């Protein structure tokens, strides 16, 4: 196999390069127009990285600095990008990059330990300096756009994608402010990295739990509102932000199911049929029976839970779920009363 270059790109396969050159040459000899077969190079964005540093950033929060085993140059990224991390257990998790995009040799991510979660954060906290993890990306599902005015709203560990956005807004000379919320000051990571003067720290123990209206109060028309944090916070901001502002947000938890109808899911290979109630996803119901079923974002964008559909139709609730032969079981639901999956 041809090894990838430093950016993880595969070199051209000599056979297909030769075919492409020969075909293009023949087309030219024949005097045909449009002689080019575009050669699309496959990009392998999977790589092993080494944990170079682990730092405690707040209560239950550590940051991990990752680098290539040879300390080589890593693919570039922009504020809002995340890495998919494949843990030794096989779990796959997404973490926003929260370092400096101009640092091309290390990535920084941060993880809050959730003892009652699905196990990924506990496993991440068990990684020590020198450990190796496999990652994919960076990918950007939360793009940062150049605007004149920003309101950033971060809830706890939701500061991670916001941190490089704040730095970028500062570099742009934009008019920005940040509202940073959490239970207590001790639970908020990276307080020491935030520029002073434009940041409002709002903790539940000092100020009470804010609602959406509190967070977007006084936001001017034309403001780009970037929000990342727990689902109730995002839902509150969505409900309260006026039409004059544009809202960009990233969730750390699945959105509530809207207009869900109950259906049955038949798992053909497992020989089981399960009832999916209106307020649960097919993924959650299936995981009760098959805990090892693969998933990651639970929001319909990573594609990890894509499963072949053997009979029935799905309602395609995510723009990333257009394929009739399969469905994203974390978000999409059966259109009829039953769907059969290859599980
Ligand atoms: S788990 Fe990410 S798309 Fe379903």
Automatic annotation (TrEMBL):
UniProt cross-references to SUPFAM superfamilies, sorted A to Z: 2Fe-2S ferredoxin-like, Ferredoxin reductase-like, C-terminal NADP-linked domain, Riboflavin synthase domain-like
FAD-binding FR-type domain residues: 44-145
Keywords in alphabetical order: 2Fe-2S, Flavoprotein, Iron, Iron-sulfur, Metal-binding, Oxidoreductase
Keyword 4Fe-4S among UniProt keywords: no
Sequence ranges assigned to domain 2Fe-2S ferredoxin-type in this UniProt record: 263-343
Domain of life: Bacteria
Family annotation (InterPro entries): 2Fe-2S_ferredoxin-like_sf (IPR036010), 2Fe-2S_ferredoxin-type (IPR001041), 2Fe2S_fd_BS (IPR006058), Beta-grasp_dom_sf (IPR012675), FAD-bd_FR_type (IPR017927), FNR_nucleotide-bd (IPR039261), MRET (IPR050415), Riboflavin_synthase-like_b-brl (IPR017938)
Keyword Ribonucleoprotein assigned: no
GO molecular function: 2 iron, 2 sulfur cluster binding; metal ion binding; oxidoreductase activity
Name of the featured protein: Oxidoreductase
Source organism: Actinomadura rubrisoli
Cofactor(s) the protein needs: FAD
